[in-house]
Amino acid sequence: MRVTEGGDGGSVPAPLPALAVVTAQATATFPPVGRSVAGARAFVRDTLQGWGHSDIVDDAVVLTSELVTNAVVHAGTAADVLCLRTDRGVRVEVADRYPERDVPLQFNAAQAANPDREGGRGLMLCGAIATSWGVEYSATHKQVWFQLDLPERPAGTRSAGPALPVDALPVADSRVRVAVVQLDGDGAVSSWNEDAEVLFGHEAAKALGRRLTDFAAWPHTPGTSTGIAEALQLSRWEGSYGIRAADGRVVPVYAAHLRVRDAAGAPSTVCLLVRDHERAVLQTASRPTGSGGDATAPGDRPGSATDPFEVFIGSPAPDDLDGLLQRTVERARDMLDGDAAYLLLATDDETELEVRASTGLPSARQRFARVPVEAGTGRYGSARMPAVHEDLTVVPGAVPLLAGTGMRSVVTVPLKVEGRLTGSLGVAAEAAGRYSNEEALRLQFAADRIALAVERARLTELERLRRGSLSFLVEASDLLAGTLDRDQTLALMAQMTVPTLATWCAVYTVGDQSAEPELSYVLHEDEDRIDGLKTLLGKVAPPDPVPTPGARVWTAPSDAAHSSALRSSLRNVGLGDDSGATHGPGPSLATASAVGGETVVLPLVARNRVIGMLTLGKPSDEHFRQEILELAEDLSRRAALALDNSRLYSERTAISQSLQRSLLPPELPDVPGVEVEVIYRAAGEGNEVGGDFYDLFPIRDGAYGFAIGDVCGTGPEAAAVTGLARHALRLLAREGFGGPAVLERLNAAILDEGARSRFLTLLYGELWPQEDGSALLKVVCAGHPQPLRLRQDGTVETAAEPQPLLGVMDDLELHEETVTLSPGDVLLCVTDGVTERREGLRMLGDDGLAAVLATCTGLTAGAVAARVLRAVERFAAEPASDDMAILALRVPEPRAEPGSG
């Protein structure tokens, strides 16, 4: 891949819309191979995130993936990817080198509805996701581009609220203090006023130079997804977090951030902070929603003059659903002077409601909890109608979300859009009898006004989630397809879910239908809790391997965690059992709280068989949202197939390796008075044996047979002939046949294989160590590279003449040659994988091998073989593409007697 990047005003190869100004660009070229698609996605993701456009990353990655796939897979050419940042948005261009290829510019309904259709999907996605797109042709390439506009983030909005009576004004302390904190471009404090010193206890001299994130005690506003660090990068932001005071206590504050720049152009951020209960001092009011911006006159409707929704509804950004819902419940609580409020959104099928925002309640426990729309048959059993409960103690369980919260009276109203239930809004108080039908009518009016804004924001969020899910699944599929190792597949499954989908994950595998599931992998976002989580899950019976699709709730880990926490608490206060038994180490209280939330199990089903379970969990009392469960279900189907593929691959690899190992001699025998060294390398991934082979075996007392051969081709087919040759050599030699007779009978056996036969080059010899320290060899070289003899004086010569190879003709007339190795001499035998090693047009050849051997005078057989291998490997940069075998025989010099000389 080749990547370049440009700056302001860079030239672009394709025309841009009129008045568009290019501020940055980055380009990359990807070769026509499958892995380029993942590389292009990573390039676009890194580029846009580097430019600070994380809002549109998922859309851009999905579209780039489709267009690059068309170029490198379908068109079969290299792909040029260009990212342009303009004052209007981001433009991505993908060009291939195949201009003759047709591009479908229109799609009818039948084509679009056909799920098996291969062509045009990338352009259909462009039409559905991109702001604009197009196709451009030139004489040398075809280019598809798409434009994504950036979401608007206005720096601020002027607003005003209606006049309110005194008793309706927000409550504040007699002395309202506003901390003014200014940060430089790096987020360090450059100004800290007197009110900041009083509110937080930090002197200005000690606060200057420190980052605001050093003081922040909470990561973000409850119920929203924007952190402090992200908020400081926005042009304007409002929200709640905590500031850690000098005495260690946390001061809840409401903050308004405004990003500015000085005359020199240097950016900085001004932060105004007040106590959280005084948020009305800073909270941005919104324009009334009446026609033309005029406020509705008092008395036109219930609560019109004093309704906090009068200055709120319609103003929140439609793409900030969490902020909209959180502010809605706070306004609803304030409007009815309640102690708590909550808002639920309906699922797509309108059968359940999911808690999305709350105030005054334990939000961690309530968030994403689900309740049925039709909870009972009574008067107030349906969320589709307004309801007032004057005293919940009289009707226990009427509102399950408020159980154990101390709330006694509650009013709930539905959110509806065009007659369809989209949610429910409730306000509760700790006192009984606080609400009547009048309050229900006021809340219903407010709910009717906010319902459309909520539904629009929900649909926007849902669309963003679906696009993000598509990008997530594309990346996950690439990662899972990139490995066939079982353990790595298990690790990838867990790492893709934590922390993106869940706080912790456990993968169970099922080896056999009758076997009990085995806990195979555990991961927690906090690494310090993994061991405790394993211990806890080890004490719990695994979930049943049920093939029913979809996520099902599994309460065993949560129950075990709470039981463990209770036992630990009792032991800590001396209220444990009196049996005197020693309790082994169990899960800690921290581990118990970390897994005490909702736990779901998704079956891993591949080829109509349950091969495991994917278990996802949340920390104490948290719940999964429905969209996350649907995404996890899609992931589990892909992960199951990848896991089963890795299992099948492992089984077949084990069988293949076992068969391959049977083709190699188990071990080399010790030959008295002769050093022997063999080096073997098989070409091809996962191959231990190929077309090259070697052997050394005893024939009879004092005699040894040795062979080195090369079957035409590589891989399993060549290995089959290898097995035939090696075993036939041993059998025939031990029957007393001489070298020529052995090879002639082996030639007949190879020809008998018919169409499966392959020709074979073979060097076969018999070795007799002599009493005078030398060694006698009888050698037959049947079409094989000639063996080389290295004498003590450094001269190198061939030790045998070439003769016809095996497996080609019926009648062979072979003869053997006699060679005597004197002390210090070496006989080197290799296959053509050594001599035919290439680097471009150069080849090592027989002369090159002889030159390497000439430098080996005085070396042992092992050192000779190692030096030859090193020379072969260094001859070319690319890995060897042919099998290779090296056999070195050396007669050592006699050792000097002690004291001699």
From TrEMBL:
Domain PPM-type phosphatase: 674-891
Superkingdom of this protein's organism: Bacteria
Residue ranges annotated for the GAF domain, each copy included: 320-464, 481-653
SUPFAM superfamilies reported for this sequence: GAF domain-like, PP2C-like, PYP-like sensor domain (PAS domain)
Region feature Disordered, mapped onto this chain: 284-305
InterPro entries from the UniProt entry: Bact_Sigma-Reg, GAF, GAF-like_dom_sf, HATPase_C_sf, HATPase_dom, PAS, PAS-like_dom_sf, PAS_4
Keywords annotated in UniProt: Hydrolase
SMART domains assigned: GAF (SM00065), PP2C_SIG (SM00331)
NCBIfam families the record matches: sensory_box
Listed name of the protein: SpoIIE family protein phosphatase
Organism: Streptomyces zingiberis
Biological classification of the source: Bacteria, Bacillati, Actinomycetota, Actinomycetes, Kitasatosporales
